[in-house]
């Protein structure tokens, strides 16, 4: 199932879809079957109403109430291009939930930075409260997967020595366009494309720490809550996004997430 969160901006008002934002299931014919409430908490209960995808604006499919956890240097070739060793245990950091934006939204270039990079990543959406999750139970706590762009002010990352500012600006965490509840990470291709040119390219199977290891490791540090998101690291090929560029993160079998970059702030 592909779950979307949307605003019925242009939808026929006679449809009376209910409160904005809404959630729905995306059908193969590009209609959305509206569901009642937030599926993370209320389960998946179709209301019987439907709306064409073309009449709505998709939002980030999840708005984390708590946190976005990120795994740094989780692809060997990326660790190498950052000039570091391959880590022996996962390197984790946080992005604030206020950095989340949806598909089609604009990444706003902060005035403090002169270099804003893309990082294509697979995003895990947590479905239940959990702590100390054994590796073999990892699937029990995952609601689904979506795509993420761990946007980074690379100059500030180097300057600060830690990553909170560089990774934490508003709009620096595009997520979407949907949560796929059936996706199974394997050897699917992951790419970042900038103005039509492929910049990052890898396979999900190139991750140093796999999904069970990530869930186990992070949940041994902090309690995970429904709607928390874990970004699982990025392959080699990171680089700057020029003003007004268009960036697309794509994962084979999962989807594509496209955003634009603003002018330099
Ligand atoms: Zn990253």
Description:
The protein is mainly β. The chain has 2 domains: 2-57, SH3 type barrels; 68-264, Fumarylacetoacetate hydrolase, domain 2, CATH 3.90.850.10. It is built from 5 helices and 20 strands. It has helices at residues 39-42, 76-81, 154-160, 164-168, 211-221; strands at 2-7, 22-26, 31-35, 46-52, 57-59, 68-72, 91-95, 100-101, 106-107, 116-118, 120-126, 142-149, 152-153, 173-180, 189-194, 197-203, 229-231, 239-240, 246-251, 255-261. The strands form 3 sheets. Strands 1, 2, 3, 4, 5, 6, 7, 8, 11, 12, 14 and 17 form a 12-stranded mixed beta sheet that branches. Strands 9-20-19-15-16 form a 5-stranded mixed beta sheet, with no helix packed on it. The termini are far apart. The relative contact order is 0.22. The mean pLDDT is 95. It binds zinc ion. The site of zinc ion has 7 residues, from loops. Zinc ion binds at residues 70, 119, 121, 150, 231, 233-234.
Name the ligand types. zinc ion
- Report the β-strand fraction as a percent range: 35-45%
What is the residue-mean pLDDT, rounded to a whole number? 95
CATH fold name of the largest domain: Fumarylacetoacetate hydrolase, domain 2
Principal-axis shape equals globular
CA-based gyration radius: 18 Å
CATH-derived architecture of the largest domain: Alpha-Beta Complex
Taking the alpha carbons of the first and last residues, their distance comes to 39 Å
How many structural domains in the coordinates?
Answer: 2
Biggest sheet record:
12 strands, mixed
Question: Regarding quaternary structure, how should these chains be classified?
Answer: single chain
Pairing-aware structural class of the strands and helices? mainly beta
SSE pattern, N- to C-terminal: EEEHEEEHEEEEEEEHHEEEHEEEE
Which residue ranges are poorly predicted, with pLDDT under 50 across at least 5 consecutive positions?
A: none
> Which CATH C-level class of the largest domain is it?
Alpha Beta
In CATH terms, the superfamily of the largest domain is: Fumarylacetoacetase-like, C-terminal domain
* Number of distinct beta strands: 20
Q: Summarize the amount of helix as a percent range.
A: 10-25%
């Amino acid at each position: 199932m592909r779950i979307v969160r949307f605003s019925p901006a242009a939808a026929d008002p006679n449809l009376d879809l209910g409160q904005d934002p809404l959630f729905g299931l995306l059908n193969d014919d590009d209609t959305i079957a509206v569901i009642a409430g937030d599926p993370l908490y209320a389960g998946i209960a179709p209301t019987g109403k439907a709306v064409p995808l073309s009449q709505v604006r998709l939002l980030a499919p999840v708005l984390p109430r708590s946190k976005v956890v990120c795994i740094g240097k989780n692809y060997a070739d990326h660790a190498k291009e950052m000039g570091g060793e391959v880590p022996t245990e996962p390197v984790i950091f946080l992005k604030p939930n206020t950095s989340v934006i949806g598909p089609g939204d604009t990444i706003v270039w902060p005035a403090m930075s002169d270099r804003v990079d893309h990082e294509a990543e697979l995003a895990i959406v947590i479905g239940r409260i959990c702590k100390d999750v054994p590796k073999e139970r990892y699937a029990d706590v995952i609601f689904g997967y979506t795509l993420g762009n761990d946007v980074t002010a690379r100059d500030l990352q180097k300057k600060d020595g830690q990553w909170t500012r560089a990774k934490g600006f508003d709009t620096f965490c595009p997520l979407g366009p949907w949560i796929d509840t059936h996706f199974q990470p394997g050897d699917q291709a992951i790419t970042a494309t900038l103005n039509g040119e492929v910049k990052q390219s890898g396979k999900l199977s190139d991750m140093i720490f796999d999904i069970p290891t990530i869930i186990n490791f992070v949940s041994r540090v902090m309690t995970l809550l429904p709607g928390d998101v874990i970004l699982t690291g990025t392959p080699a090929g990171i680089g700057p996004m020029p003003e007004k560029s268009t960036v697309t993160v794509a994962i084979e079998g999962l989807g594509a997430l496209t955003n634009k970059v603003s002018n330099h702030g």
